[in-house]
Structure formats: C-alpha cells, structure tokens
Amino acid sequence: MGSSAKKKKDKKKDFQKSKLKVGKARPKPANFTDTSFKSKSIVLNQQSLTRTAPSATSQFSHHVSLLTSRTDSQRRDSLSYLTTAISTRPTNAPLQQPVSVLLPKILPLTLDGSHGVRTQLSKLLRVLPTDDMEDHIEQVLLYIRAGITHLAADIRTSAMDMLMWASDFAGSALVSCPGGWVKTLKSLMAAQGWPLEVTTSAWSSGKASFGKPGSDGKAMVKSLNALASLLRAGFDDPVRQDLAERHTGHGFPLVDTALHLGSKKSNGFAHLNLFGPPRDEESQMYEDKEERQEVFQRRFQGSIERGLESAKQEGGEVGRAAAGVQKIISEGMNDYGALS
After folding, report:
1. Quick one: which of 99, 267, 87, 245 has its CA closest to 176?
2. What integer is the mean pLDDT of 89-95?
C-alpha cells in the first residue's frame, strides 16, 4: 500500500502547477554568467596630436569664436582671455584682430542675460584703443540704446554705465554721429518714463519701473547720471575752446590754421550724406553746439525740466542727481541765441 500511494502522489505532482511567490526572482542556474557590467571609456573628439602649441593669434581667434557659446561661463572666460591678451600686448603692437572685426562679435553681448558677461565686456571695451573706438562710436551707440530701452532692469543699468563710459572718452563724436543726439535723448527719456510732449494727461501715468522693489532709487540715479554725461558732451564746444586758446596770442602769426586744414576724421564729409539714404531729424548729424541746442530746446527741454522737478521732490540721491542735471542744462543753454 505504501508504494502504490507514493506512485499516485508522484503522478499528481507531474500535473500540478508550481506557485511562485510574488516579488521573488526566479533562481538562477548554476552556470549563469553575469553580463550586466559596463566598461567606462573616455572619448576625445577631434583631439590634436601635434607637438607644437597653437600660436597666440590662433588662440585669440578661437576665443573670439567662443563668444557665441551657449554657456555663460564660456563666454565670460573668453572675454577675460581677450581682455588679458589685448592689455598685455607689447607697446605699439597692433591688435590681434582689428577693432572693425572685433566689435560685431562682442557688441551683441551688451544685451547678454548674464551679469558676469556684461561686466567682462565692459572691461574689454575699456582696453581697446580709444582712437579706433571713436571711429565706430555709431555702431557702439546702437547697442547702448537697445540696452537702455531693454525690458530687463539689470541690462538697462549696464547700458547706462556704457553710455557714461562712451561719453567720457568720445563725447564729441558720440553726440555728433547720426542719431547720437536725438535718438539717445529719446531713449533716456523712455527709460525714465518721461513723455516727449509736456501735457497734464501725459504726466499722470506715473514713473517707469526699475526692476526689484527698493532698487528704483539707485537705478534712477544712474539714469540721471547718464543723462548728465550726455548733456555735458552735447553742450561742449571743443572748436570754440580751441579758438579761444589761439586768440590769446599763442602761435602768432599762424592763427586759426587748423580751421583751414582737412578733417582728421576718416569720414570727414559724412555730415553731407552724399551716398546714404535720406535722413530724418532724428538720424541727422548735429556737429555744432548751436544745432544741438536748438533741437534740445524745441523737443526736449520742457519735458526734461518737468521730469527733473518731479525727481527733485523725492530728495536724497535722486534729488541731488536731478539738481546736477538741471545745473548742466542751465549752463549749457545759457548762451543759446547769443552764439549766432
């Protein structure tokens, strides 16, 4: 009986389905080989196998090409390298690349979203030769005006710094280039929220916003300082100053000789606009102080003075900056009408 019962039990076991426990892996066979491992490797694309290091010129060109990189740190480091390479070059040595080639690559970074990139760009622009920068001040001013009217408050602030820097080293060239006087004044007024037409309804809209709460005062002071630097350059008359120095008797008998010589500018007849498209009033070149005074008195003076009166009521740094701008206007327009 025992053997027959065991045989029946063995036959039933062949037709029974084994139940697997949930969550428990099936046991691996004894000859199982684990193939799940992965080998780590380092792949260098386009690696250089030359024994000689790249020249300084090729490295300079390489970093210029990296200015369009998507990484903020890469753009900042490339600008830092270019600044060091230009500032440490031998005396009287030419630039690795002309200014006319560098500016189209670096000026778009004026509107860069990274504060570090814009700061490094400002350092780079300051080490470039000032004579070459004066010849391209119109191109620089295009990006400065775009930054002044930008939506981001920090970009507007950086553009104000660039405008003050440009007014210091190339003030006469800045205000006399096409659009340098009227368009720049309009951009600064738009940044302040001042309307061009002095009407009661226009002034009821309130002042412009300067970004984060609590930063309005500092940004407004910087905007007023930028306006002051532009007006100071616009009301300056280097030609009359030179005449006054010559009429003191120094240099006799060669008096006013410079007035009869050719222009030292590369585009001495640009104000004639012989080959360019017709210009409107905003795009005109105002090379004389009287012309800039006339346009300022007719289009901007009333609105700016009313905005300055409103700013002086705030007091503090804003009030002092507004008083400084008002003083520049009164001194600059003091001789208006008497020069003719």
Report:
1. 267
2. 87
pLDDT in tens, 70-84: 999 999 999 999 999
Q: Do 144 and 111 form a contact (C-beta atoms < 8 A)?
A: no
Distance of CA 234 to the CA centre of its chain: 22
Q: What is the pLDDT of residues 240-258, one digit of tens each?
A: 555 555 555 455 566 666 6
State the Cα angle at 135 between 132 and 136, rounded to 5°.
95
Read off the tokens for 217: 């005062």
* pLDDT value, residue 330: 92
**Residue 147: closest CA among 159, 163, 139, 162:** 159
Q: What is the pLDDT of residue 111?
A: 94
For the cut 50, the answer to whether the pLDDT of residue 204 exceeds it is: no
Rounded to whole angstroms, what are the CA distances from 170 to 126, 194, 222?
12, 26, 19
Tokens at 54, concatenated? 């790249």
- Please give the Cα distance from 267 to 135 (Å, whole number): 9
Interior/surface letters 266-282, b for 16+ CB within 10 angstroms, e for the rest: eeeebbeeeeeeeeeee
How far apart are the C-alpha atoms of 179 and 8, rounded to whole Å? Answer: 107
Least confident of 33-42, 183-192, 203-212, 224-233: 203-212
Would you state the structure tokens that stand for residue 128, as one six-digit string?
């470039």
73: left (phi over 0), alpha (psi -120 to 50) or beta: alpha
Taking the alpha carbons at both ends of the chain, their separation in whole angstroms is 140
Q: In sequence order, which residues have a C-beta less than 8 Å from that of residue 202 and are 6 or more positions away?
A: 195
Those residues whose C-beta lies under 8 Å from the C-beta of residue 176, and which sit 6 or more positions away, are 285, 286, 287
In the block, tokens 């009033």 appear at: 281
